[in-house]
From TrEMBL:
Its EC number is 3.1.11.6. It comes from Nocardiopsis suaedae. This is Exodeoxyribonuclease 7 small subunit. Belongs to the XseB family. It catalyses: Exonucleolytic cleavage in either 5'- to 3'- or 3'- to 5'-direction to yield nucleoside 5'-phosphates. One of its GO terms (molecular function) is exodeoxyribonuclease VII activity. It is found in: Cytoplasm.
Length: 101
């Protein structure tokens, strides 16, 4: 059994894209948003059993989390880009930081 564990660890080390899969959402932002919109429409239309409604609700929560992950990643990238492009003497002097959002 220990061999399986070390093999899995080696696979994660060799392929960083798969190792980071838990951090980066499987769906694109647009795909997740579109599916979330569909889930909301189905829930609002009614006529579903409680079990179906709960399953859709849970899927909607997952999709909303995926969208939020993409948005947080985009915010972080924008913040880094703005810091890199900011002039050295931006006049803030430690005061309020200018945020793009």
């Amino acid at each position: 059994m220990a061999k399986k564990s070390s093999t899995a660890e080696a696979a994660e080390t060799e392929n960083p894209e798969q190792a980071g899969a838990a951090e980066e959402p499987e769906l694109s932002y647009e795909e997740a948003r579109e599916e979330l919109d569909s889930v909301v429409r189905r829930l609002e239309s009614g006529g579903l059993t409680l079990k179906e409604s709960l399953a859709l609700w849970e899927r909607g929560e997952q999709l909303a989390k995926t969208c939020e992950q993409w948005l947080e990643g985009a915010r972080a990238k924008l913040a880094v880009a703005m810091e890199e492009n900011a002039p050295e003497g931006n006049g803030n002097g430690g005061g309020e930081a200018e945020t793009p959002f």
